[in-house]
């Protein structure tokens, strides 16, 4: 018999079928026993006349008849005839997987990742992530962006600073990419609009709920812009379409977390950094410490302000100071102490940084000089600006942060399959 998937019940009503999957739970009463079965497509209850002896967690193959069952939340059930265990537990599962909530502390959840990921509520995070990646790709293509994959092994650090990992590379020393920045800019000179979904490595010794040392960046870069507003407008449109897809296709996963996604507004509010700092000081009495452009608490208040005044979960903060932005960021022609660099906050947390870039060779070299950035090792990148780069800009989004914020996860690590942090290099 061919295998039938568990989302094909309506078309098989009354028929005898073969199904396969993992047992989520079992329940034995005196004259009847139940097996909750999950496969890649859906979940369903199978009913047997006697005990099956199967344990939650085992992989099974069941033959039975599909029956409409309006009392069941699945709408159908399978009247089981035979159950064969195709793969047995050699050891008991490390924790009870049969409850709706796992309720494990973060370390236990991560230490036993291959098992905890099987839990329906944990799985839901990555089903949603799958939809996010797919819809980003779809939307970017719709907007005329070409997908690229750029190298992650580099001969020199991308943007300088100390937060890069060194690796041995034959006789040389290489670094792992901190962003696809230089390559995606180079590719604007080729394709005009490009996007990348790729690994980003950051050697930041953080112990926060929003950082991991390896994450997936979702980037976009576009040429022939008038100014940075073209970029924020495009990013807003991409988020709007992406969130609409996640809300419809991901509904069952969002429901598990009690989340209803709000539409991304047509016009996401924009504030200059200096302006929003004043507003949150006035409104909430929060003063951003002078050592940072904006602190996490300031981001929260900026998010709260956008929500209260504009009913928006999203807010752009623009015109970050020249001193805080990388050398390739376009200074604001009206006030060179500020840049045309921006961040996008979602529910009070940065999910993207972006901006207009410098596209003229002389200005780039001059800006590097002012910042004390040495051109050595960057020749291939810098040279492209001699060959007529169009005005351009783009963004780097953190994919896991988006999921973290959508579902309200306590830590970003819950949104990474196998997170890497200062202490954790396994599983
Ligand atoms: P933060 O200020 O939160 O440390 P950042 O400004 O250093 O972030 P960017 O270099 O602007 O980060 O990276 C672009 C995006 O990538 C960020 O907006 C964020 O969504 C994501 N991101 C950055 N660093 C990390 C990290 N360590 N772990 C997970 N996501 C990250
Ligand atoms: Mg940033």
What is the total domain count? 2
Which percent bin holds the helix content?
25-40%
Structural class assignment: alpha+beta
Q: How far apart lie the N and C ends?
A: 38 Å
The poorly predicted ranges are none
How much is the average pLDDT?
Answer: 96
CATH topology of the largest domain: BirA Bifunctional Protein, domain 2
By CATH, the superfamily of the largest domain comes out as Bira Bifunctional Protein, Domain 2
Alpha-carbon Rg, integer:
26 Å
Lateral arrangement of strands in the main beta sheet: 6-10-11-18-17-16-13-12
Bound heterogens, unique = adenosine-5'-triphosphate, magnesium ion
Percent of residues in β-strands: 25-35%
Strand/helix succession = EEEEEHHHEEEEHEEHHEHHEEEEEHHEH
Total count of helical runs of at least 4 residues: 11
CATH architecture of the largest domain: 2-Layer Sandwich
- Report the sheet with the most strands, covering strand number, pairing sense and barrel closure: 8 strands, mixed
| CATH top level class name of the largest domain | Alpha Beta
Number of strands: 18
**Structural shape:** elongated
């Amino acid at each position: 018999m061919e295998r039938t998937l568990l989302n094909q019940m309506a078309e098989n009503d009354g028929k005898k079928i073969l199904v396969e999957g993992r047992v989520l739970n079992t329940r034995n009463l005196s004259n009847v026993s139940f097996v909750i079965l999950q496969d890649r497509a859906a979940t369903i209850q199978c009913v047997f006349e006697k005990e099956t002896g199967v344990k939650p967690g085992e992989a099974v193959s069941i033959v039975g008849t599909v029956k409409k069952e309006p009392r069941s939340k699945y709408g159908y059930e399978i009247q089981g005839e035979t159950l064969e265990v195709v793969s047995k537990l050699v050891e008991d599962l490390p924790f009870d997987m049969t409850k709706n909530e796992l309720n494990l502390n973060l370390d236990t959840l991560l230490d036993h990742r291959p098992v905890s990921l099987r839990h329906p509520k944990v799985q839901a995070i990555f089903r949603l992530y799958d939809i996010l990646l797919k819809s980003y790709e779809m939307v970017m293509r719709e907007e005329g962006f070409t997908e690229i994959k750029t190298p992650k092994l580099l001969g020199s650090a991308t943007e300088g600073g100390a937060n890069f990992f060194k690796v041995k590379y034959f006789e040389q020393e290489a670094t792992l990419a901190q962003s696809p920045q230089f390559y995606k800019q180079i590719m604007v000179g080729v394709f005009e609009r490009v996007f990348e979904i790729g690994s980003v490595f950051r050697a930041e010794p953080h112990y926060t709920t929003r950082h991991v040392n390896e994450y997936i960046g979702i980037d976009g870069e576009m040429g022939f812009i008038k100014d940075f507003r073209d970029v924020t407008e495009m990013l807003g449109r991409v988020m709007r379409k992406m969130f609409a897809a996640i809300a419809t296709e991901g509904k069952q996963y969002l429901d598990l977390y009690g989340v209803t996604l709000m539409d991304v507004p047509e016009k996401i509010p924009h504030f200059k950094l200096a302006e929003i700092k004043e507003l949150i000081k006035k409104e909430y009495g929060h003063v951003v410490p002078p050592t940072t452009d904006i602190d996490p608490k300031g981001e929260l208040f900026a998010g709260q302000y956008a929500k209260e005044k504009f009913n928006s979960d999203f807010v752009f903060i623009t015109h970050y100071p020249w001193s805080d932005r990388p050398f390739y960021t376009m200074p604001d022609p009206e006030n060179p102490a500020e840049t045309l660099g921006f961040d996008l906050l979602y529910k009070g947390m940065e999910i993207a940084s972006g901006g207009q870039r410098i596209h003229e060779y002389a200005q780039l070299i001059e800006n590097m000089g002012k910042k004390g950035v040495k051109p050595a090792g960057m020749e291939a990148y810098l040279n492209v600006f001699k060959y007529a780069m169009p005005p351009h800009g783009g963004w780097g989004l953190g994919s896991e942060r988006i999921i973290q914020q959508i579902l309200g996860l306590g830590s970003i690590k819950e949104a990474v399959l196998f997170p890497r942090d200062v202490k954790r290099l396994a599983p």
